[in-house]
Amino acid sequence: METSLYDQLGGQSFFERLVDGFYGEVEHDELLRVMYPDDLTESKRHLTLFLVQYWGGPTHYMQERGHPRLRMRHAPFRITKPARDAWIAAMNTALASLRAELTDEQFGELSSYFDMAATQMRNV
After folding, report:
1. 3-state DSSP call for residue 76?
2. Is 2 a member of any domain?
3. How does pLDDT run across 67-118, given as a tens digit for each residue?
4. How far apart are CA 66 and CA 55, in angstroms?
5. What is d(CA 45, CA 89) in angstroms, rounded to the nearest whole number?
6. pTM here?
7. For residue 53, what is the enclosing H or E element?
């Protein structure tokens, strides 16, 4: 039986640190910051729960918020190529900060997913 990436990375704490690093970047990015509420607490929590579930952890996101429907949830925002690029840059910085904890395969899998997901969110 294959071990989930969630388990390989040590569970929720890895994703909490990744999300904290990501939002640390968002807070200082003019293009991204306006897309988020003043208080980032719930945004952080939702992204953490989503990533935990996506990568094989507990399904708390689905239990609380239902199906992710990422495109629908992001539809109210103008997600241009520059916004997508800023999002990827913020996530890549956060991921790079945890690089020492990841194998090349894990790093590649995470990077590829974030690139694909961000590209699919573009709506302008």
Report:
1. coil
2. no
3. 888 888 878 888 999 999 999 999 999 999 999 999 999 999 999 999 999 9
4. 17
5. 20
6. 0.93
7. helix 41-54
